[in-house]
Target: Peptide/nickel transport system substrate-binding protein
Amino acid sequence: MNGGQAAQEPDRAGADGTRPSRRAALAATAGLTASVSGCAGRLRDLFTQRNIRQLSLTITTLPADSDRESIRIANKLEQTLTTVGIDVSFDVRSGTEFNRAVLYDHEFDICIGRHPGGTDPDFLYEALHSLYIDESGWQNPFGYANLAVDDLLEKQRHADGAERRDAVTNALEAIATEQPFVPICVPEEHRVVSTDRFTGWADGHLATRSGYLGLEPTADVETLRAVHTDSRPTKNLNPLAADYRGRGTITQLLYDSLATDDATGEIQPWLASSWEWRGATLDVHLRNGCTFHDGEPVTAADVEFTYQFLADMSGDDDDRVAPAPRFRGWIDAVEAIDVRDRDRLELTVDAGHAVGERALLVPILPAHIWRERSASPMGLGGSVLSQGTTTAVVTNNVPPVGSGPYQFVTRSEGDQLTLERFDDHFTLRSGVERPAPMIDTFSIDISPNSETAIQAVENDTADVTSAALDTNLVESVDDDGTQQLLESPSWTFYYLGFNTRKAPFGNPRFRRVIARLLDKEWLVENVFYGHARPVATPVTEQWVPDTLTWDGQDPETPFLGANGEVDVDAARAAFEDAGFRYDDRDRLRVRQ
Model:
C-alpha cells in the first residue's frame, strides 16, 4: 500500500587511545550546514523563499499481517511527526518488497522494521562501515559514512578480551551519538510447542539449527510438523537472497558451515572437525567423508570457492566486483585461503580471534553448482543491485543442494515446504557430539498469522510455531499439559533507519531529534504489551556499557515528552536548536 494516509491495524488489547567525547564526535561529523539565525538569515530567506518548503518524509514499513509491531510503531511516529509540523506519508510493503526497497534499491526516507542483529557486536561493522555504502543487503543499507566510526569499528574487530570490550564500548557510544539508526527495543520471542510428540524443545534455540536437531520423538513419530507465518521459504531457497531470507534457520538446516554458534554466541566446530590458531592463520580440518545432498564430496576446494564467491560473485571474466548481499562482514575478515589437501585448508584472517572465528559461520556452497551462477542473467526485472547483479542473487535455488542435516524434498509455493533427514550427515556418525536430526521428515506448513498458527498446535495439526508469535497474542496461549509456551532469548531488534544519502537524514542533529520523538518505554508497553525491553544500543545485554544502560529512559536521546505524548514546544525548540526553522503556520521547513 502506498499513499499519504496512516495504515490502520486493529488494536486487540487496547492502547588504543583516549575515548572521544560524544559531543566532540557530533561536532566533527555534522552532515549539513546549520541555518543562520538573526537578521542575516531573514534577509537571505527573502531571496530564497522559493527554495523553502515544508519537510515531507515517507515511512517505509510492513503491513500488519507481516509485522504487526512495525506498523503500529509507524502509526505512532506518524502522529508525533505530524504534531510537530512534518508532512508524513506511508509506503507499506510486503516483507520481500520492503527488503528490496531498503536493502537493494535504497529507496526510502526512513524505515521501520526488525533488524537481524547478532549475538556479537561485530555485526555493526557490516551494518555501518562506509566500505559497504554502495553495496546491497544488510551491509550498510543506511548509506552511513563516518570515518571516525569506521575506525572504532575496525579497532573492535582486531582486538580480543578486555581490549576488545573497551573498543566495543567506544564504538557503541559513537554510534549512539550519531544515530544512523534508532534501536527501539528487543522483543521477547515466544513459540508454542507440543510436548506429547517430542521432547527437548528447550535444548536449543528454535531460530537456529540446534533447536530442531536435538528433538527426541516420544513414540514412533516420523514427521516434525512446523507451522510458519512467512511464506518466503516456499518461494525461494537461495541463501544469498537478502529479500527472502530472515533468521536463516532453514539455510542452517540445508547447508553446513565450518562452525556453528548458539544463542550465547559461542563458536563451536561443525563441518570442521577442529581448527588451530597459528598467529593470524586458522588451520582448519574438515570432517572426513562428508558429501553434498547430490552425492558429490565436500572438500576444502568447495570451502575456498565459497569464500571467494561470496567476496565476488562476478567471476573471472567480469570487470565488476559483485559481493554477495549476505555474509559480507564475516567473509571480509578472511584475507587469503590456502588449500593444503582435500580436507584441510588455512585461512589468513585480518581480525582478532573472536571475529576471525565468526568467519567460519558462512554456509558452504557446492562449487559444481554455484560456479556457473556468476554470469549476469538476461532480462532481469525488478530490483537491480548497485554492485551488479548475477544469477547467484536472482536464482530461487530450487532445489537447494547443500550438505546440511536436512535435504529438500518438495514445496508448494506459498503453502508448504518438506525436508527430509540427510542420512549421510556427519552428526549421525557414532562419536560425534553434536545434535543430530532424529526425525525422518520436517514438514513446514504456511499459516496466515500467529493466531492461526497457535490454533494449529492446539488442534494437534502442528508441533511448533516456528516463527516468533505476535506479542499481543502471548497471553492468550493456553499453556496446558500438552502445550508449552516457550520463551527464547532474542538478538534481533526493532529499529528506525534513516537513508542518510538524502537530506535532511544525513544530518546527525536531525536524526537525534527524531530519535527523541520515540517514547520507547511507551511503545514497549502499548505495542509489545510488555514483551520487549527498550534499548539505547542494539547489542546483547552482556555488551551494553554502563553509559548506555537503560534506566527508565534512553540515556543518549531521552524522549521529548511523557507517556507517549510529545511535548510540542520542546520538540520545536529541539529542531530549531538543530538549525531548522518553522513558518508562521508551525510547519517545519527545509531547503529544496
